[in-house]
Amino acid sequence: MTSTSEGPAGDPPSTDVVREALLAVAAGDADAFPALYDATSARVYGLVLRVLRDPAQAEEVTQEVYLEVFRRAASFDPSRGSAPGWILMLAHRRAVDRVRSSQSQSDRDVAYESRSHTEEPDPTSEEALGGLEAQQVRSALAQLSERQGEAVRLAYLDGLTHTQVASHLGIPLGTAKTRIRDGLLTLRRLMGTTQRREEES
Amino acid sequence: MSEDRRNRDPLDHEELESLVAASALDALDPDDQTVVDAHLADCPGCRDLLDSLRETAADLSTGLETPPPPRLRESVLGAVRAEAAAQEQPAPATSDPARAEAPSSRLSRRALIGGGFALAASALVATGVVVARPWRSEEEKDIDQVLDAQDARTYRATWKSAQVTLTHSSSRSSSVLEVEGMDPAPSGRDYQVWSLAKGKAASAGLLRPGENGDARVLVPADAADGAAVTLEPSGGSEQPTSDPFLALDYS
């Protein structure tokens, strides 16, 4: 793969480049960090911004994420998943931690309430799905039952716990759990994201 | 799931898989996360499921790409450079094996509190053995006196990536809370340590992990029942404004 610095509509960074940079950082090569940042920051910041919906907080959390990436790079295990997946996992966790510790939680709940009165799918996630790779995700999401997709989006993109998903949708917790599980399993099948173990090449 | 399986286990495996799926979305309440973590330790299949569903979850962020402001790049890379420089300093003392053995707990652990904190019973031991050790930050006489006290009792726990040690000395009416490998508090916030007595909390100061995630705080423990740590707005609060993510009982 060649250059991976991304523009607003640029190609998604290569998983290989991210992995190489992350493994280099893990091996103690801090000079590889700028390349790692450049290859992943738009995805990390975009996800964190989507969850937090606040640019200032998203910047803070993104900074924390990258410090955590740097500190914990050695614990990245390529046999368990992709390098971008690992970084996005850390990013998502920190973003939802921020959401849940935030005083604005009750405000967000009100916002969900008003949004839920429109009987349409979450518009933000729809309009955000733009690029080429995104078409696959959009197509997969479209094939999910609306209920499953909604439950998955509320959990992942809005940072709700499954208990909050149930309460937001006015459904029993068990139903929410089932929708989240079935939705994710269906997405996995549709998007072909089986576990990406590293191949010895 | 068969009835007998249901009777034998609090959750059948399908229910556990549902929790694993929610865990891949970071959508579990702390109690459920504890259940999942315990199950994952024993179930390679669910570990694989979790890894795989995390990849699927990460793919959901495709299309949300947003370039962050250029200043963030400078800020992140500057912080990483500073941290890389700090790591070239000598590593902090490793934990003393004498503390990690000898599970003769006279002290009980109580109740502890949500916020994603799970205290493994096996991670918590109390011993009378305390060895003074070098520390990167400035030594404080009082802290050493507690650590060296004949009646010092040590509790160990883990919280996220941090090793937490609380050493309590009745004769010194004090405790020392030490952390190793602890992530810094989120920006705009601080960890704050509290001494608890009869349901009242008195601040014992802020807990600010250094570059290597290490810190220690002297906790006054005169007539105290325990100690706790909360996440507070930067600079700390007069009284806790959030539930403790870590609490220990001296009883």
List keywords for this structure.
A: 201 residues, Rna Polymerase Sigma Factor, Chain: A, 10 helices, 0% strand, disordered N terminus, disordered C terminus, B: alpha+beta, 2 domains, four-stranded antiparallel beta sheet, globular, transcription regulation (chain B), transcription (chain B)
SSE topology sketch:
The complex is a heterodimer of chains A (201) and B (251).
Chain A: H1 15-26, H2 33-52, H3 55-72, H4 83-101, H5 105-116, H6 123-128, H7 132-143, H8 146-156, H9 162-169, H10 173-191
Chain B: H1 3-8, H2 13-24, H3 30-42, H4 44-59, H5 70-87, H6 97-100, H7 141-148, E1 153-159, E2 162-169, E3 174-180, E4 189-197, E5 200-207, E6 215-220, E7 226-233, E8 246-249
How would you characterize this protein structure?
The complex is a heterodimer of chains A (201) and B (251). Chain A is mainly α and 201 residues long. Chain A is 68% helix and 0% strand. Residues 1-11, 110-130 and 193-201 of chain A have low confidence and may be disordered. Chain B has 251 residues and is α+β, with helices and mostly antiparallel strands. Chain B has 2 domains: 3-59, no CATH class; 97-249, no CATH class. Chain B is built from 7 helices and 8 strands; from the N terminus they run H-H-H-H-H-H-H-E-E-E-E-E-E-E-E. Chain B has helices spanning 3-8, 13-24, 30-42, 44-59, 70-87, 97-100, 141-148, and strands at residues 153-159, 162-169, 174-180, 189-197, 200-207, 215-220, 226-233, 246-249. In chain B, the strands form 2 sheets. A 4-stranded antiparallel β-sheet of chain B has the order 1-2-3-6, with helices on one face. A 4-stranded antiparallel β-sheet of chain B has the order 5-4-7-8, with no helix packed on it. In chain B, a hairpin with a 4-residue loop joins strand 2 and strand 3. In chain B, helix 2 crosses helix 3. The radius of gyration of chain B is 21 Å and the shape is globular. The chains are: A mainly alpha (201), B alpha+beta (251). Chains A and B meet through helix 2, helix 3, helix 4, helix 7 and helix 8 of A and helix 2, helix 4 and helix 5 of B. Chain A: One of its GO terms (molecular function) is DNA binding. Chain A: This is RNA polymerase subunit sigma. Chain A: Keywords: Sigma factor, Transcription, Transcription regulation. Chain A: Residues 36-103 form the RNA polymerase sigma-70 region domain.
